[in-house]
Amino acid sequence: MLSGQPIIILKENVERNYGKEAQRSNIAAAKAIAGAVRSTLGPRGMDKMLVGSTGDIVITNDGATILGEIAVQHPGAKMVIEVARTQDDEVGDGTTTAVILVGALMEQAETMLEQGIHPTVIAQGYRMGMEKALEIASSLSLKVDPADRKTLIKIVDTAITGKSIESVKTKLDSIIVDAVMAVAEKVNGKTSVDEEDVMIKKQKGQSMNDAELIRGVVIDKTRVQEGMPKKISKAKVALVATPLEITKTQVKAKIKISTAEQITAFSEQERDALKKLADSIIDSGANVLLCQKGISDAAQFYLAKSGILAIEDVPEKDMKYAARALHANIVNKPESLTAKDLGIADLVEEDTEGKVTRISGCKNPRTITILLRGTSDYLLDELERAVVDGTRVVMDAMEDGTYVVGGGAVETELFMKIRDYAQTVGGRVQLALEAYATAFESIPLTLAENSGFNPIDKLVELKNVHSKGKKNAGLNVYEGKVVDMLAEGVIEPLRSKRQSIQSASETAIMLIRVDDMMITQQGGKGGAAAHGM
Q1: Which of 61-75, 130-144, 286-300 has the lowest mean pLDDT?
Q2: Cα separation of 403 and 143, whole Å?
Q3: Confidence (pLDDT) at 1
């Protein structure tokens, strides 16, 4: 107050939390988000049913999907959700682990803040812990050859175990690994895989067990005319980007016709032009045509007469997929089409039941299709999420050539090794390092809890076995025994573990350093601001 007059700095619509209140708010938000997905961790985790404002239902136990569907307002909670999104973008799996770790790190920070330890000290300890954790995780990793199909199948199996589509996982494991191995390329001696090269198509109506791998593409279209063949073996496929019809002129033009002969001449000329377009396809030797635009009735007639299976209005994305799978060229003008531009496939067949056309049996395709089937949309969506996770973990393992064991084995080892490292540091940072180590207990604890076993008993058992040097020991969630996870085949890419450690730690450090939150409410000008230490 100056002379009894208040000094107004912030607008009325700005809500401010500072000091311990801001810290408590962020800690509570992180714990709440971690709590939302905690019960989904592991093979025996539960599913969540999410109902949107429009009534759309999603049933899943995929962490990124759950957090992507729920609407949150708190800025701290949004940052934790960003951890899951980053994990999903970078790795494709391990989203729940990353979010639970953020929650555990914030919970540990809460205890230290109550003890009077400064946020900067906590952040320093967490950063040192993160560097040590990444170093330990790398030392625990094992090598995998990109051609080691047996190990890659185990990696996929670990990623999709526990999802509601588990009954068909044995079939899916092989399909996923074969699909990724088919499109993998060697670049400068390193294996490289583009996730866009594995196309996933869904077809409703049949059982999940009917999923299949198609060495080619599936197009959600059928032939343009009934008179065309449904099935063509030893296909030669032409890809045309322009329409096979007479297009309107760019300028406004009028044609004056005064006699019947002129009408006949005009229609004959139009028909001849369309016949030339169709003939250019026929003369190239093609027996299948994929056209990105429309095909006129007259052109359809000539193509059908020559026994060509033609599909119109094929989306550009599918055209590009087909070109890569068939080793074909997309031409802009039908007149310029030659035999060299055609793609080769063993079979092109229309599936009338699913209203799709399958192009299969391509030689060394650079794109490949996984066709999924299911009795309901909810099941198909969850099946797709499982396959996406599976393909991503195989890609990670093939590109990096490294994997680690699962079942909470790595986390138990991290907890014990970082605690030992903390003893060598000293000072208040030692307390922060010990707290950082304790956060890793949350993963084996949650695994045990979700599987119906006593979490404390299992954690003690794990620590006991690890103290005897058995670094691959983890929790068998079905029997409740501590076993060798490598022998059990429970393995995951090292990239997944590294990313979850890094993104969880960095987000926790960022949130701990915030001591002032200024949130502009809707209706006011300006954005929200959060001040750090």
Answers
A1: 61-75
A2: 7
A3: 45
**What pLDDT, on the 0 to 100 scale, is given for residue 146?**
86
Report, as residue numbers or ranges, the catalytic residues: 62, 95-96, 389
Side-chain half-sphere of 271: how many Cα atoms within 13 Å? 9
DSSP β-bridge partners for residue 209: none
Distances (CA, A) of 186 to 147, 192, 325, 399, 450: 12, 6, 17, 10, 41
Helix axes 95-114, 427-439, angle to 10 degrees: 140
Q: pLDDT (tens digit, 9 = 90+) per residue, 426-458? A: 888 999 999 999 999 999 999 999 888 999 999
Helix orientation angle between 409-423 and 427-439, rounded to the nearest 10 degrees: 170
CA distance 46 to 162: 9
* Integer angstrom CA distances of residue 140 from 405, 483, 488, 501: 8, 17, 17, 14
* pLDDT tens digits, one per residue of 210-220: 888 888 898 98
Residue 247 contacts residue 228 (beta carbons within 8 Å): no
Is the pTM for the entire model greater than 0.85? no
Burial class (CB in 10 A: 0-12, 13-18, 19+), 59: middle
Residue 325 is which amino acid?
A
Can you read off the two tokens belonging to residue 35? 């709590």
Q: Judge contact between 110 and 511, C-beta under 8 A.
A: no
H/E/C letters for each residue in 137-178? HHHHCEECCCCCHHHHHHHHHHHHCCCCCHHHHHHHHHHHHH
Phi, psi values for residue 481, rounded to 5°: -100, 150
Residue 493 DSSP class = E
Domains of the chain from N-terminus onward = 14-143+404-532 (1.10.560.10), 216-242+285-364 (3.50.7.10)
Determine the Cα angle at 194 with ends 191 and 198, to 5°. 115
Torsion angles phi and psi, residue 347, rounded to 5:
-150, 135
Alpha helices in 306-441 (DSSP H): 316-326, 377-400, 409-423, 427-439
Cα 175 to chain centroid distance, Å, stands at 17
How far is residue 291's CA from residue 239's CA, in Å, rounded to a whole number? 6
Give residue 288's Cα distance to chain centre.
Answer: 33
Residue with tokens 């109550």: 114
- Among the residue ranges 1-15, 80-94, 309-323, 337-351, the one predicted with the least confidence is 1-15
Q: Among candidates 43, 87, 65, 93, which has minimal Cα distance to 393?
A: 93
Residue given tokens 């790190």 in the structure block = 105
CA angle 458, 405, 95 (to 5 degrees): 85
What are the strands, taking DSSP E only, across 435-490?
473-476, 481-484
- The neighbouring-strand residues paired with 481 are 476
- Output the CA angle 207-211-212, nearest 5 degrees: 150
> Tell me, what's the pLDDT at 44?
84
| Cα(414)–Cα(386) distance, integer angstroms | 28
CA distances from 458 to 413, 453, 477 (A): 14, 7, 10
What is the rounded CA–CA span in Å between residue 499 and residue 522? 35
Tokens of 187: 């670049």
Question: Which residue do the tokens 């890809």 mark?
Answer: 239
